[in-house]
Fold this protein.
Amino acid sequence: MTPVDDDAPPASAAESLELIRKEQAAAARTIALNPLLYYVPWGGAWLIGFGLLFLRFGPGGRVLVDLPAWLPLTSLFLLMAVAMASTAVVSAVRGRGLEGRSSWQGTAYGFTWFFAFAGVGTTTNRFAGLLPEPERGLLWASASVGLVGAMYMAGAAIWLSRDMFIFGALLTVINIAGVLAGPGWHSLFISLGGGGGLCLLGIVLQVRTRR
């Protein structure tokens, strides 16, 4: 019986190129960001949290469902904390396989989120007290969502992702429409369009990565 040499070089240039392609694909899968673990927790947080805000603090101050006043925001913040933890874990695992330029891009982009929200939060907090309660909530929500839309479009330019740019642009349009519609409606728009859109984006990207 003739022994088989597993370490034998490829028999042709075509086999060499195919071997390189397979190794590159395997490496990409190893360090790739899992879209479902990244986008779905945030989408779920927005879908549920802003949905509860709409039901409790509806258009014109109507109470569509008699929930405790503290429940919507508490649910939103808790779910966002879970999403933040999921993002941190996924990003840390992915970062182990990156170095050089890619590592710097990811680190800089992550710190940009932190500093951008710190700036927006400080500015919003300075002027929110001058507004009535419904308008105050609208200011906080619209400023935060607007920043998220801008960050997604900036991220699209960094990683050359058309899907990220489209979502960021659509989120911005939805946010503007919600502001024009007023308190209550904005929560509904962000719940369905923002939260639902994030979940859909995660599913679409996951399907594409498996092809």
Notes: The chain has a mean pLDDT of 85.
